């Protein structure tokens, strides 16, 4: 028994020594399981153990964490970007950068057998994952940790303040919630608040990523009009990127609308603007002309209803191809003007039904669109792009 135990111990020692060898000796992949938030990820030959440390080919690894990557061959530098975090690191360098801040990365980026490898624990840790090793199951587990309850509260406090500012229509308060480098059009939001009062209810919120300097939160917001100018009630999913200000408080850097559902389409037609009869008739006439041109497959007549825009020839070609291959039957159910600046800009709200026949294959849909109109001289014309608020297959 003693001899057998010594042999087993000796074999274990030899294995351990071989794993702790140099880079060239450790290039053979080992059977290691990686679990990301409880789900197994098979990195195959892209995962190796070097001196007892797990490394994965940078592209395969960073993709799993949601990063987009670029690699500079000249400098052997990896640039990795995800929501709220930018990592820059070079092969063999002792220092890298996370969101512009210098960090120590000794031995975290290596080159081996033609591959560029990055430390698995390093990437997991900087991406807010808890990294654990189980020798029994030979498993590396990575579980997203995110911020603490206190840190979450600090992030969510921004949105609580934003709701209060919205309720008060406080333009000054809005500016105070924006970061110094914000991408937001603060004046645009302020103008909207001056003309329209809304109420937003946050139905759901979660923190998507978190670092000391950048936090990203996804909110489901239900916004309704209280009073004032035209506003379509809607439920949206928005991604807020926050930067930490010099005062230590979170500020809004940017907002992306990921999805939107308009919740009171019929009620939009009750928000008609006051427009002189002559202008209203002219706006309706140009849209009528556009529909007629589409039904008659008249490209030139269709283009004549549009405000000037770049790449008109490209649209002309597209319309020609469409009219050549499809027959349209568009009818207007109802329309109204919902915005008017008093002189030369307006917004047209239209409900229409479209039947399309492509080589005998027919489809029918009803939709509601918003189309901006502008007055050029004494003639109203339409913007080439319209916003679809709803589309229902019939």
Notes on the structure:
The protein is an alpha+beta fold and 394 residues long. The chain folds into three domains: 2-144, Copper Amine Oxidase, Chain A, domain 1 (2-Layer Sandwich); 149-263, Nuclear Transport Factor 2, Chain: A, CATH 3.10.450.50; 277-393, Nuclear Transport Factor 2, Chain: A, CATH 3.10.450. The chain is 28% helix and 44% strand. The strands form five sheets. It has a five-stranded antiparallel sheet with strand order 5-6-7-8-9, covered by helices on one side. The longest helix has 20 residues, at 149-168. The radius of gyration is 30 Å and the shape is globular. The model is unreliable at 1-29 (pLDDT under 50). This is Copper amine oxidase N-terminal domain-containing protein.
- Overall structural class, as computed from helix and strand content, comes to alpha+beta
The percent range for helix content is: 25-40%
CATH level-4 homologous superfamily of the largest domain: Copper amine oxidase-like, N-terminal domain
User: Briefly, what CATH class of the largest domain?
Assistant: Alpha Beta
Tally of helical runs? 10
**Any idea what the shape is?**
globular
Report the sheet with the most strands, covering strand number, pairing sense and barrel closure: 5 strands, antiparallel
Provide the CATH architecture of the largest domain.
Answer: 2-Layer Sandwich
